[in-house]
């Protein structure tokens, strides 16, 4: 077992375990901070998939932006936020959660069965790209290529997403403003 | 060499944890975290397949777009949560059951 595989299984374990903690905890703030750990472990998984630029973007945008935004929303919505959490305390698995648990477990079983049946490493286009040498190697420097592709073949989606981001931010500021009746 | 199946199974597990949060939580912020988990599972799949596309970088670039989309989604969703909290004094989606009037 190579070092990369050991790191992969460690990161995967951390990501899944902390995500389960986020799902199971009753303390919202602790859950949000555990979500940090999930995101960092996922960034590590991206590095192991040889996508270092995506990993750095993940850390900058998710950890630096989205989580701070979630913490802000938590603080601004005040004490009532915690009341709906307090109601669900009690047994580890209370009856209201059983349907969700069953549904998500069965969905997981179906997805894993599909993945094992598909056996992604033997897919046609994967084998073809391995044969053509179109696979990233750990020694490659892929960031230059990402920049060139972003400004040539993916220029239209890039511009579209920048306009969408601007619209979303203006819309968010418009929704969150204090209206005359508020 | 890490097999592609391993990445897909980790992605499936994260997706199902997000689905569980989405189905059982009664706090809009926790629902949002569940959605973020599901988005991250999708991004992990994009990145894992993107390894086999060295020339066009399709997987990685659309993973970047998905991260930006997640940021936009979160900003709008949190603004909506704040507005809903101001009006209803709760963010339990089960108790927000009336329209404007």
How would you portray this structure in words?
The complex is a heterodimer of chains A (182) and B (101). Chain A is an all-alpha fold. Chain A has three domains: 1-88, Up-down Bundle (Four Helix Bundle (Hemerythrin (Met), subunit A)), CATH 1.20.120.1200; 91-119; 143-182. In chain A, 74% of the residues lie in helices and 0% in strands. Chain A has helices at 3-24, 28-48, 52-76, 80-86, 98-118, 124-131, 143-151, 155-176. In chain A, α1 (3-24) runs antiparallel to α2 and α2 (28-48) packs antiparallel against α3. The longest helix of chain A has 25 residues, at 52-76. The radius of gyration of chain A is 21 Å and the shape is globular. The termini of chain A are far apart. Chain B is mostly helical and 101 residues long. Chain B has a single domain (4-90), classed as Helix Hairpins (Orthogonal Bundle). Helices cover 74% and strands 0% of the residues of chain B. Chain B contains three helices and no strands. Chain B has helices at residues 4-24, 28-50, 58-88. The longest helix of chain B is centred in the C-terminal third of the chain and has 31 residues, at 58-88. The N and C termini of chain B lie far apart (59 Å). The relative contact order of chain B is 0.13. The mean pLDDT of chain B is 88. The chains are: A mainly alpha (182), B mainly alpha (101). The interface between A and B is large, with 92 and 75 residues.
């Amino acid at each position: 077992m190579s070092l990369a595989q050991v790191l992969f299984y460690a990161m995967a374990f951390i990501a899944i375990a902390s995500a389960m903690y986020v799902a199971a905890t009753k303390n919202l703030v602790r859950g949000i901070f555990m979500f940090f750990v999930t995101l960092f472990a996922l960034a590590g998984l991206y590095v192991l998939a040889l996508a270092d630029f995506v990993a750095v973007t993940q850390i900058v945008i998710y950890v630096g932006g989205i989580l701070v935004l979630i913490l802000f929303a938590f603080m601004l919505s005040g004490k009532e936020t915690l009341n709906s959490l307090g109601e669900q305390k009690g047994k580890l698995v209370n009856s209201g959660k059983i349907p969700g648990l069953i549904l998500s477990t069965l969905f997981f079983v179906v997805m894993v069965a599909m993945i094992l049946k598909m056996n992604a490493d033997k897919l046609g286009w994967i084998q073809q790209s391995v044969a053509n040498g179109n696979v990233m190697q750990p020694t490659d420097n892929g960031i230059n290529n990402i920049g060139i592709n972003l400004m040539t073949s993916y220029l239209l989606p890039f511009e579209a997403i920048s306009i969408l981001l601007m619209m979303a931010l203006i819309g968010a500021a418009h929704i969150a403003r204090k209206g005359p009746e508020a | 060499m890490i097999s592609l199946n391993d990445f897909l199974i980790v992605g499936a597990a994260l997706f199902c944890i997000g689905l569980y949060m989405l189905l059982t939580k009664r706090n809009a912020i926790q629902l949002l975290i569940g959605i973020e988990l599901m988005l991250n599972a999708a991004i992990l799949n994009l990145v894992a397949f993107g390894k086999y596309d060295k020339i066009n970088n399709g997987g990685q670039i659309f993973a970047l777009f998905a991260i930006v989309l997640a940021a936009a989604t979160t900003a709008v969703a949190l603004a909506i949560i704040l507005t809903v909290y101001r009006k209803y004094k709760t963010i339990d989606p089960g108790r927000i059951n009336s329209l404007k009037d």
